[in-house]
Amino acid sequence: MTLNINIETKNVVKIFAIAVLFVTGMLALGRMYDALILVFTSFFFALALNPAVSFFSKYMPKKRRGPAVAIVVVIALALLSFLIFSIITPIAREASAFADTVPERIAEIRDGQTPVGGFIERYDLEDDISEAVSSTQVRLQSFATSAVSRVGQFGNSIITSLSGFVITILMLLNGPALLKSAADKIYRNKDLRARHERLLSKMYGIVTGYVNGQVVVALIAALASLGALFLLKTPYPLPLASIVFVFGLIPLIGNTLAAVLVVLFTLVLKDATSAVVLGVFFVLYQQIENATLQPMVQGKTTQLPTLVIFVSVILGVAAMGPIGGLFAIPAAGCAKILLVDYLNHRPDNHVHQSKNLAGKLTDQLKKAVS
Fold first, then answer.
1. I need a surface site. Which of 75, 170, 244, 305 has the fewest CB within 10 A?
2. Could you tell me the residue range of the domain that residue 89 belongs to?
3. DSSP class of 58
4. What is the number of domains present in the chain?
């Protein structure tokens, strides 16, 4: 039995061209990765701020978006300034005070005056701790020598942040008009356009509702943690509460990471009893949050199973870091909307076409074998 397969030259050329274009595209995406992340992040923030812009634009002459964008930007900058002066300044002051007390605390630990110090003295770990302190001092000196390059990196970060800020403003100003103009030129079928506009509206609701809700959830967690830290008289409560807020923006795993860090800091800065009490508080609070706040945010906006949410967060963090964890759940919710819409609108004869194609392939194989 002989089976001859004839492949035309033009098909080989097409396959080769597709492979070259695919590899070139992947290399280009790799080179543009940082820029794409910046644009995507700006787009995400523009979606989160757009409800406020739309609200203010209703009261502007001719419903112009320009003045509304200016009002929202001024309010955002005012809130940012408030956060800087009310949180960052105390954090810097308390961090400086902590740096001044480091030698005293190290001496207390070495003398066995704290639970950690007693543990070190009990298991004869003084030499190891001294070596670790010396190694840390050497690393700090090495870090100081590279301060000039760090300043350059900080300058690049400032430029990147300003670029993202400008992109966000431009998206808020020109985004709706640009989308409408593109839709007018692309669509000829009014029903198809209405269907796609409904899809975009649903995805827009998921993104804006999720982002704003997650910020509220993180803020509530930070305020609750701040109250617990004040009641326990834990040193440096504001920096520790800010850790809870920042990590709380990461869904599912963020609060756990924040709790571990804050409990460890409490163990080192105060005592084991306060650390245990704070650990119990975080466990109880997370149970309450998972039963009340999180279902309200994630259930009503994305309506995704817990397994899908967890896997999405893990993949997002692995791909883009902490900010990827923030984007993962709304992205999964949007993907679900697209998939459900495709399944609801797929042709009725899709299954029959697949069966006919399978039948034709089977007949061809039988003829080739015979």
1. 305
2. 9-186
3. T
4. 1
